[in-house]
C-alpha cells in the first residue's frame, strides 16, 4: 500500500539531484497542492465573470457552478463546510427556478 501512496522512496532530492535541471524535475514530479483552491470562477454580471450571483454559468442554460471556485477567497475553516452551504443555496435557487 505504501508504494501506491508514495511511489518514490526518495521524497527529497538529496544527492540524486546534482543540477538545476534535476532539481526542477524533482520539484515537478513531487510538488502537490496542500491547500484547497478557490476563487477560479468569478461571480458577477460583467463580461469577465463566469457565473452570475445565482451561480448560473453565463451563456450556458441550465448549468450552475456549485463548488469552491465561486468563493472569492478561502474560508478560515475546512472548505467542505462552505461548499455544503453553497450547495444548499444552489439547491434553493434551482428549486425556485424550476
TrEMBL record:
InterPro entries listed in its UniProt record: FAD/NAD-bd_sf, GMC_OxRdtase, GMC_OxRtase_C
Protein name: Glucose-methanol-choline oxidoreductase C-terminal domain-containing protein
PANTHER family for the chain: CHOLINE DEHYDROGENASE, MITOCHONDRIAL (PTHR11552:SF147), GLUCOSE-METHANOL-CHOLINE GMC OXIDOREDUCTASE (PTHR11552)
Pfam families: GMC_oxred_C
SUPFAM superfamilies from the UniProt entry: FAD/NAD(P)-binding domain
Domain Glucose-methanol-choline oxidoreductase C-terminal: start-end pairs: 10-87
Residues passing through the membrane, by range: none
Gene Ontology MF term list: flavin adenine dinucleotide binding; oxidoreductase activity, acting on CH-OH group of donors
Assigned protein family: Belongs to the GMC oxidoreductase family.
Amino acid at each position: 500500500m505504501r508504494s501506491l501512496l508514495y511511489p518514490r522512496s526518495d521524497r527529497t532530492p538529496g544527492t540524486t539531484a546534482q543540477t538545476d535541471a534535476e532539481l526542477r524535475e524533482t520539484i515537478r514530479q513531487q510538488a502537490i497542492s496542500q491547500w484547497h483552491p478557490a476563487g477560479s470562477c468569478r461571480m458577477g454580471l460583467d463580461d469577465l465573470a463566469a457565473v452570475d450571483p445565482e451561480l448560473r454559468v453565463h451563456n450556458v442554460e441550465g448549468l450552475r457552478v456549485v463548488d469552491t471556485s465561486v468563493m472569492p477567497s478561502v474560508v478560515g475553516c475546512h472548505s467542505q463546510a462552505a461548499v455544503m452551504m453553497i450547495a444548499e443555496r444552489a439547491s434553493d435557487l434551482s428549486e425556485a427556478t424550476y
